[in-house]
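Good morning,

Attaching, inline, the backbone tokens for the sequence recovery test we're adding to the shared suite. The designed sequence is right after.
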């Protein structure tokens, strides 16, 4: 192991998305060390990526230049405690929701901490990750983090750490809101006599097309929505129904609930 080694504490969904992306971008399996207590998951990582995976961290961690924290926030303290002696020399990158950088400094003994909030489209290189760096992190280390996350999609730096709670609520959790919407579209498709499969195809292609249209256009989502909405037509009927049901306000409340929960996770498990 060397300073080029990237160690992951937790080898689940998010770790796999980042490791897979970096391997596709040309990093070598020997550059990774994963600490993952769940044996079937360890075997999956070894089989899929050819990386080294240990049930528990050991002194070898001290050589890693970068340590990525990818355990559930609830498990952070318990995961850090037994390996603390070997963490002080590394740059730490957390993907954990809520856990404050101050808690990561206290648990690792390193001031060089970057927090990120990726999302699951990272699995196909189409994610977006919010990033926050503590002042001890150098410009070069910020660039290192950007390189690490580049294969997973876009990155966006925020200046205030608390803003990561809003990023978590928007883009971290956002893919689930989108699938929730698609599930409802599919249920409506079935109500109207289409099959669920037809509903899924129509809903996903429509959402993907609308997102691509929005990304490629200088016009606001409001203008793009209005362009679909003919006077007295079908879209007007649907939007009027959603407004009467308070769907927009409900979505805003839901996103704020996620932001509040992110802050709570930091207080409860930091
Ligand atoms: N999923 C998402 O959309 C996003 C998740 N995140 C954040 O990423 C983090 C990881 O989430 P995700 O990848 O979905 O979760 P997973 O449950 O898939 O991965 C976490 C892994 O860590 C393992 N683990 C548990 N205890 C330890 C330990 N002591 N040492 C090392 N590994 C341990 C778990 O094993 P076991 O299963 O045995 O407990 C599990 O395999 C979370 O903090 C979450 O907030 C961030 C952005 C988006
Ligand atoms: O639900 C969660 O807590 C994590 C953080 C963002 C997405 N999943």
């Amino acid at each position: 192991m060397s300073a080029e080694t990237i160690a992951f504490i937790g080898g689940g969904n998010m770790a796999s998305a980042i490791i897979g992306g970096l391997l596709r971008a040309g990093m070598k399996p020997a550059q990774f060390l994963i600490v993952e207590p769940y044996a079937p998951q360890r075997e999956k990582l070894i089989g899929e990526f050819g990386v080294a995976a240990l049930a528990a961290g050991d002194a070898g961690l001290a050589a890693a230049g970068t340590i990525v924290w990818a355990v559930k926030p609830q498990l952070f303290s318990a995961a850090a405690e037994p390996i603390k002696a070997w963490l002080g020399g590394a740059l730490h990158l957390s993907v954990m929701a809520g856990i404050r950088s101050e808690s990561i400094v206290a648990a690792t003994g390193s001031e060089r901490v970057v927090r990120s909030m990726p999302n699951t489209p990272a699995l196909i290189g189409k994610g977006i990750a919010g990033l926050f760096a503590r002042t001890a992190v150098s410009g070069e280390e910020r660039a290192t983090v950007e390189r690490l996350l580049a294969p997973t999609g876009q990155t966006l730096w925020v200046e205030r750490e608390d803003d990561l709670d809003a990023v978590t609520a928007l883009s971290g959790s956002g893919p689930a809101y989108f699938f929730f919407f698609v599930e409802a579209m599919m249920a409506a498709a079935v109500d109207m006599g289409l099959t669920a499969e037809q509903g899924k195809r129509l809903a996903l292609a429509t959402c993907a097309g609308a997102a691509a249209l929005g990304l490629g256009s200088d016009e606001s989502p409001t203008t793009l929505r209005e362009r679909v909405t003919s006077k007295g037509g079908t879209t007007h009927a649907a939007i009027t129904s959603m407004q009467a049901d308070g769907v927009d306000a409900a979505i805003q409340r839901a996103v704020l609930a996620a932001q509040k929960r992110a802050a709570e996770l930091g207080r409860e498990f930091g």
